[in-house]
Amino acid sequence: MKPIPIGTTGTYARTVAPTDLASQLDASLAAVMSTPAMVAMMELAAMDAIRPFLDAGESSVGMSIEVHHSAATPPGHRVRAKAEVTKVEGRRLDFSVRAFDEVEQVGSGTHRRAVLDAAKFNDRIKAKRKN
User: Among 10, 7, 11, 2, which Cα is nearest to 87's?
Assistant: First the structure.
């Protein structure tokens, strides 16, 4: 892993599709973008931020996320997530994450990821499957 400067940012954007809706999780919920969909976008923005700094064979995994989903977004609206590196401790990275629809900020929070050797990680998963 190359050094990752504090303040490095990444983004991820997409249009809210039917599969992104809370009502897909449970029919009693509203037909608006679900919190899990927003969280996934925030994680993808964080991955976008660090991708240029990863060496061949490295990947990252999410360790924690704490978000506030502050506004509803209807299907068909474009949502953009942004992640900014706020702290680097060895292979552990902290991010400030935010999401915006076409009208307003819809979510914010913090996210932590760890950079790892993808082959070693996959070997651990294979060993776990045998149990």
Answer: 7
